[in-house]
Write a structure and sequence with these properties.
Elements (H helix, E strand, L loop, with lengths): L15 H9 L3 E6 L6 E5 L2 E4 L5 E4 L6 H9 L3 E5 L6 H6 L16 E3 L2 E3 L1 H22 L2 H11 L1 H6 L4 H27 L8 H14 L4 H21 L5 H15 L14
Antiparallel strand pairs: 1-2, 1-5, 3-4, 6-7
Helix pairs in contact: 4-5, 4-7, 5-7, 8-9, 8-10, 9-10
Length: 273
């Protein structure tokens, strides 16, 4: 047995193009060109690194962007791979101020329901929640596509043996998940009339808590728990303190993980060895 003091397969003289391509994955890159007052930048996620002599970086740029014009003039561009700590760079390009919807995008006059005043944007969010939950539940439990999704989630190889196109199923599920997340972002921005690049950060952990507490595999449980978490946070802010909002959310998550790991609406699954 040989004990190596360093990586045995490490390249002592690594190719910078290969290192750049290895860092990409699904990352976002920042392209900058020009100098002085003519400097321009753009965040780009659609690009390909092609090895060769010379190597090429091919990216999809907006033809009307200032960066494209600066790149045509100078013929040079700096490409930097952004990581999670660099997310604040987006604020430099989007501007420090938040955006808002047009004044007449959604009516702002409250509607009285059972003695409560509810904004039309909130009613729209509730209606969208009901439609999406019912549609996804029926899709997953009453359709051939839903059967394919469940089969691929259990065993992709066995699903392919019986004729399920696992790759197409995964791509379709990813598309649906992104579409629902985009709809949630639009509705959240409508409710607060606040559009910013960090809009989803506050919703991400709460969505995760709703899925875990509700139980994997049952969108009805996730939706019900998500609404319950929202109600608990509002009540805690009103009657206790706004500082306890996160504590209540993750306190509920911790209790459920300890007492019922499969979630409130989940079922225990027995897997044969």
């Amino acid at each position: 047995m040989t004990i190596h003091t360093e990586h045995p397969f490490a390249d002592r003289d690594p190719d910078p193009v290969r290192r750049f391509r290895g860092r990409l994955g699904g990352a976002v890159t920042l392209w900058t060109a020009g100098s002085g007052a003519d400097r321009a930048g753009l965040t780009v996620s659609s690009l390909v690194v092609a090895l060769g002599q010379p190597a090429h970086v091919v990216g999809l740029l907006d033809p009307d962007a200032d960066l494209t014009e600066a790149l045509r003039d100078t013929g040079r561009v700096v490409v930097q791979v952004l990581a999670w700590p660099d997310r604040q760079v987006a604020e430099a390009f989007a501007g420090p101020t938040t955006k808002s919807y047009p004044v007449d995008a959604v009516p702002t006059t409250p509607v009285r329901i059972a003695g409560l005043l509810v904004l039309p944007a909130h009613l729209l969010s509730i209606a969208a929640l009901i439609v999406v939950v019912v549609a996804v539940h029926l899709l997953l439990n009453r359709s051939r596509f839903g059967a394919a999704v469940r089969a691929v989630s259990v065993d992709p190889r066995s699903a392919q043996i019986v004729g399920v196109d696992a790759r197409r199923t995964l791509i379709t599920v990813a598309f649906l998940a992104a579409a629902i997340a985009g709809l949630a972002g639009v509705l959240a921005a409508l409710s607060d009339n606040n559009v910013s690049f960090s809009l989803g950060e506050a919703l991400l952990l709460r969505g995760f808590a709703a899925v875990v507490v509700g139980g994997y595999g049952d969108i009805r449980g996730a939706a019900a728990v998500g609404v319950a978490i929202g109600v608990l946070e509002v009540l805690s802010s009103q009657y206790i303190s706004s500082g306890f909002r996160d504590a209540i959310t993750f306190g509920v998550l911790l209790v459920v993980l300890v007492a019922r790991p499969q979630g409130l609406f989940g079922e225990r699954q027995l897997v044969r060895a």
